[in-house]
Design goal:
The protein is α/β, with parallel strands linked by helices. It is built from seven helices and 19 strands. α5 runs parallel beside α6. The chain is elongated, with a radius of gyration of 21 Å. It starts with a strand and ends with a helix. The structure holds NADPH dihydro-nicotinamide-adenine-dinucleotide phosphate (NDP).
Length: about 300
């Protein structure tokens, strides 16, 4: 019997592992298929305290992983399909058929990139459409690409793409950008970045070779216009990864796990949540790590009282 199973391998999961194993609890972390989570697809993280010159996202999570392991957190590469039981102890079902008994569970499964859901998009994923510039920008050397979205991630993706592409056009559905001033200024200062504000994407066009462009609606005139491009990077936010819970925990209207104010407690005693899967607002590496510590401390108190 484990004290705690941690589901998810981003900063929230690894931080929970560091705290729990350091406190002497027997715990095991199930990584999910994208080990390390979203930080592995970002470039330089400049706002994580302790690294004055920034740190590569991938390096940051790998260091967290080793820190958790060195105190005794066990790591299993795999996917949790189901959590069985209405109260402690729970049975955690893995995709390899293993069933793990545990007193408590911490859900730290993060969130995944959202797509536009427009005509032609799904067929073009991997053939021009991507949600990760760090992963795919390399394929667009001296080519023209689009970034859809007006948030910080869209600015980051556009800036990263300028290292490879000859032209990067940001397409955003409103006249105002949601991104922070510092990110907008950096993007505006880059000559390779062009702007199409107040345009809504309606259709991805492709031929046998892959994507050819994007049809957009001019929101002022209502006219449909076509933009030729070799690649489209979708940066319109994320969807919390809660499907495997299958209604077990109370979620908010956007699908994020609801936690009791100021705690990591979910609607089921003994199951805790940390990181982006329960945070519709902040979604930063540092806030995810902080909530991982809160989840671990709440779990410790819960197990002490069992
Ligand atoms: P955001 O929610 O901040 O932005 C999403 C953007 O996508 C918005 O501009 C939104 O438009 C647009 N959008 C949403 N749905 C659609 C749609 N169906 N069609 C077209 N456009 C759409 O998400 P991000 O992923 O950019 O950022 C997530 C969080 O991470 C934020 O809190 C951000 O500040 C933070 N972050 C901070 C960084 C930093 O500080 N360095 C770096 C990266 C992320 P609209 O504006 O009209 O709603």
């Amino acid at each position: 019997m484990y004290d705690t199973i941690i589901v998810g391998s981003g900063p929230a999961g690894y931080t929970a592992g560091i705290y729990l194993s350091r406190a002497g609890l027997k715990n095991r972390l199930i990584t999910g298929y994208s080990e390390g989570g979203q930080l592995t697809t970002t470039t330089l993280v400049e706002n994580y305290p302790g690294f004055e010159n920034g740190i590569e996202g991938n390096k940051l999570v790998q260091t967290m992983r080793r820190q958790a392991e060195q105190f005794g957190t066990e790591m299993t590469f795999g996917f949790v399909q189901k959590i069985e039981g209405e109260s402690s102890p729970f049975k955690v079902h893995l995709d390899n058929g293993e069933i793990i008994d545990t007193k408590a569970v911490i859900i730290a499964t993060g969130s995944s990139a959202k797509y536009l859901g427009i005509e032609g998009e799904e067929e073009a994923v991997g053939k021009g459409v991507s949600a990760c510039a760090t992963c795919d920008a390399f394929f667009y050397k001296e080519r023209e690409v689009l970034v859809v979205g007006g948030g910080d991630v869209a600015m980051e993706e556009a800036l990263y793409l300028t290292r490879f592409a000859s032209k990067v056009t940001v397409v955003h559905r409103r006249n105002e950008l949601r991104a922070s001033d510092i990110m907008v200024k950096r993007a505006q200062a880059n000559d390779k970045i062009h702007w199409m504000l107040n345009y809504t994407p309606v259709k991805v066009t492709s031929n046998l070779m892959g994507m050819t462009g994007l049809d957009v609606r001019n929101n002022e005139t209502g006219d449909i216009e076509h933009i030729q491009a070799d690649g489209l990077f979708v940066a319109i936010g994320h969807q919390p990864n809660t499907d495997f819970l299958d209604g077990k925990l109370a979620l908010d209207d956007k699908g994020y796990i609801q936690t009791q104010a100021g705690t990591a407690k979910t609607s089921v005693a003994g199951i805790f949540a940390a990181g982006d899967v329960q945070d519709p607002k902040y979604q930063q590496a540092i806030t995810a790590a902080g909530s991982g510590a809160i989840a671990a401390l709440d779990t410790l108190a819960y197990i002490d009282n069992l």
